[in-house]
């Protein structure tokens, strides 16, 4: 099956090389399709509309005359138009003017459409649909800073520009640039993953119902504002990834890709196969030559025009299988991954995308959001793999939710926790996370809200008594994040605000909540109030990242787990030369607890506490003496020749990293 898939990939790539002048030229089609301006001021327009009877360009520039500028029909359903520059050398279509592609459908109807390649679309407050605005400023933003070098340890801050403000409004690229990026840098994250950048008409879709694939969302600002934001991130050494949605598209036709040429098969499968029954969206035909051109060019445009450093591919599971993962469980049986239910054309597209990205921009990073566990998805294309660098460890947040919802504290299973955190495919890199945006959405709960719930409204002040619920919640919040960070993968991800236990949930303005922005914001100000306990969680998250920066456990080989003691509720492991000890027991502390050191071949080695969740600055109770030194000795323990004695281990609240 792998051989057949690689043959399909090889033949598609060979056809592109032979018929399009190479993958480089093919993926640069965004410079010829749509509306592009020549150096002399002339305008060249090109569209693929195989179902159209005729194509025209209308707009402010010609008084919205639908027939004055007809396209010329070419081979394979393509249409082109050249508009010469004016006598004064000025372009005939001015920057900022509105345009529409006019399609005469097969039934004679005139359809006013936004070009699939449009770079900028806006919506006036009094309108429902978006308008296409020609974006060609006299002076585009010039990037000043190079992209950061490829990171060994990836610490990702998953972000949404629009909600990145305590105020109840749609925040801007400028706000993110000057208020949020410094915060991300201070927290020790070296990568920001941006959601909802590709233009989407419905704000509450979280950016996953894309209407204009080549347009940066105008609700946050201009394309140049986004370019500046990425440039400033690069100046801080922060890598910037785009959450790219190539798994489906919005059903909108007036301001989307659907029925662009009047048929339901342009860009998408026709009929039932072209519709996602749960998402109510359209599904791409990945075997179509022009769809490959469109999607590959889309990736390249985001890299080369905006300087994104890579992508998180959304909805990969839906792409991989004809059943789209609907009503299907994945046990790990290989029959679930190989067979006629696999969409080989979609998988071939992903291989082509990763091959193109690595070939043209080898420093770029790609991440797969796949819940199925498709084997070799993160192995090189040359090996017959999917070519991704990382995949999301999506079982981990589900496990934490299941534990907190269903189990009493004394029933937590240490072996099951360790298994979930370490169960990953050999030599495929995973991104571990305790929670992402999925858990923050309305209808679900963040870890902090599950742990502390209603008491977050009344007892997060240091002036109020430290109740058992708040105490337990704060300590477990820290422990869950650190053990996930240190044991769960080769990269770590956090959704904005969750690092400090952001209260409540995330809900975008919609009819069901009276178009309220109250829950569509991030209250970063909570961490700046020294009378609130949120600052303790924020400080712990920051220091956790900074210790990883120093010791690089994410880039180290998988951890050696020396203990998962069910009755003691203790997990101990070593990674990157550090010892991590977690006591999850709800009421039992330990004195003189023996653990295995990081380097069992050295008889005598000194250790000291680096990170202690019981420290005062993290909202702990200061029950450990940080001046204590610990020495390994030649004393067999847990099948290793040497061990060391930890003098004191506090119930629930203790984990220490030793060096």
UniProtKB/TrEMBL annotation:
Could you tell me which SMART domains the record lists for this protein? Aamy
Q: Which Pfam families match?
A: Alpha-amylase, Alpha-amylase_C, CBM_48
Q: Enumerate the catalysed reactions.
A: Transfers a segment of a (1->4)-alpha-D-glucan chain to a primary hydroxy group in a similar glucan chain
Q: What is its EC number?
A: 2.4.1.18
Q: Which UniProt keywords apply?
A: Glycosyltransferase, Transferase
Matches recorded under SUPFAM superfamilies: (Trans)glycosidases, E set domains, Glycosyl hydrolase domain
Q: In which pathway does it act?
A: Glycan biosynthesis
Q: Which GO terms describe its molecular function?
A: 1,4-alpha-glucan branching enzyme activity; cation binding; hydrolase activity, hydrolyzing O-glycosyl compounds
Supply the InterPro entries for this chain: A-amylase/branching_C, Branching_enzy, GH, GH13_cat_dom, Glyco_hydro_13_N, Glyco_hydro_b, Ig-like_fold, Ig_E-set
* Domain annotation Glycosyl hydrolase family 13 catalytic: ranges: 167-541
Under PANTHER family, the record lists: 1,4-ALPHA-GLUCAN-BRANCHING ENZYME
**Which family, according to the similarity comment?**
Belongs to the glycosyl hydrolase 13 family. GlgB subfamily.
Q: What is this protein called?
A: 1,4-alpha-glucan branching enzyme
What's the gene?
GBE1
């Amino acid at each position: 099956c792998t051989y057949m898939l690689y043959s399909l990939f090889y033949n598609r790539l060979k056809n592109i090389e032979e018929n399009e002048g190479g993958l480089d030229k093919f993926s640069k089609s965004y410079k010829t399709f749509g509306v592009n301006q020549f150096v002399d001021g002339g305008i060249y327009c090109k569209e693929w509309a195989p179902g159209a009877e005729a194509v025209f360009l209308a707009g402010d520039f010609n008084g919205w005359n639908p027939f004055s500028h007809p396209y010329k029909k070419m081979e394979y359903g393509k249409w082109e138009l050249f508009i010469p520059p004016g006598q004064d050398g000025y372009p005939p279509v001015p920057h900022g003017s509105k345009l529409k592609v006019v399609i005469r459908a097969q039934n004679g109807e005139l359809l006013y459409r936004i070009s699939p390649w449009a770079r900028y679309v806006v919506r006036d407050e009094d309108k429902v649909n978006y308008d296409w605005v020609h974006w060609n400023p006299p002076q585009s933003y010039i990037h000043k800073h190079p992209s950061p070098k490829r990171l060994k340890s990836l610490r990702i801050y998953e972000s949404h520009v629009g909600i990145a403000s305590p105020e109840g409004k749609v925040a801007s690229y400028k706000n993110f640039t000057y208020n949020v990026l410094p915060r991300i840098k201070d927290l020790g994250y070296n990568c920001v993953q941006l959601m909802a950048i590709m233009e989407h008409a419905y704000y509450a879709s979280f950016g996953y119902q894309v209407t204009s694939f080549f347009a940066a969302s105008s609700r946050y600002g201009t394309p140049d504002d986004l370019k500046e934001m990425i440039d400033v991130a690069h100046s801080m050494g922060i890598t910037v990834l785009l959450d790219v949605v190539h798994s489906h598209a919005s059903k909108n036709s007036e301001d989307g890709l659907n029925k662009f040429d009047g048929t339901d098969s342009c860009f998408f499968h026709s009929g039932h196969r072209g519709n996602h029954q749960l998402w109510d969206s359209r599904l791409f035909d990945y075997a179509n030559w022009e769809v490959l051109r469109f999607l590959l060019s889309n990736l390249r445009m985001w890299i080369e025009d905006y300087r994104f450093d890579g992508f998180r591919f959304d909805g990969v599971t839906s792409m991989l299988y004809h059943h789209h993962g609907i009503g299907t469980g994945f046990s790990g049986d290989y029959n679930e991954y190989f067979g006629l239910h696999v969409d080989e054309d979609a998988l071939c597209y992903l291989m082509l995308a990763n091959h193109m990205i690595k070939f043209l921009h080898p420093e770029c990073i790609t991440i797969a959001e796949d819940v199925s566990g498709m084997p070799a998805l993160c192995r090189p294309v040359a090996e017959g793999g999917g070519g991704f660098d990382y995949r999301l460890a999506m079982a981990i947040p589900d496990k934490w939710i299941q534990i907190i919802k269903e189990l009493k504290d004394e029933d937590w299973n240490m072996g099951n926790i360790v298994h979930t955190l370490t169960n990953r495919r050999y030599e495929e890199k995973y991104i571990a996370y305790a929670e992402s945006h999925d858990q923050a959405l309305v209808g679900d709960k963040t870890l902090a809200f599950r742990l502390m719930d209603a008491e977050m409204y009344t007892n997060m002040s240091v002036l109020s008594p430290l109740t058992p619920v708040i105490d337990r919640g704060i300590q477990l919040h820290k422990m869950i994040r650190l053990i996930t960070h240190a044991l769960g993968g080769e990269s770590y991800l956090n959704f904005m605000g969750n690092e400090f236990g952001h209260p409540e949930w995330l809900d975008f303005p919609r009819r069901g909540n009276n178009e309220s922005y109250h829950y569509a914001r991030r209250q970063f100000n909570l961490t700046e109030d020294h009378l609130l306990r949120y600052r303790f969680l924020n400080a712990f998250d920051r220091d956790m990242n900074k210790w990883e920066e120093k010791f690089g456990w994410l880039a180290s080989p998988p951890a050696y787990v020396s203990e998962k003691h069910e009755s003691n509720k203790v997990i101990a492991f070593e990674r990157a030369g550090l010892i991590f000890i977690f006591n999850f027991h709800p009421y039992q502390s330990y004195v003189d607890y023996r653990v295995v050191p990081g380097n069992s071949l050295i008889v005598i080695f000194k250790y000291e506490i680096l990170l202690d969740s019981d420290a005062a600055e993290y909202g702990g109770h200061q029950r450990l003496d940080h001046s204590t030194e610990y020495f390994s000795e030649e004393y067999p323990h847990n099948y290793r020749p040497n061990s060391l004695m930890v003098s004191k281990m506090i119930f629930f609240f203790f984990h220490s990293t030793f060096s």
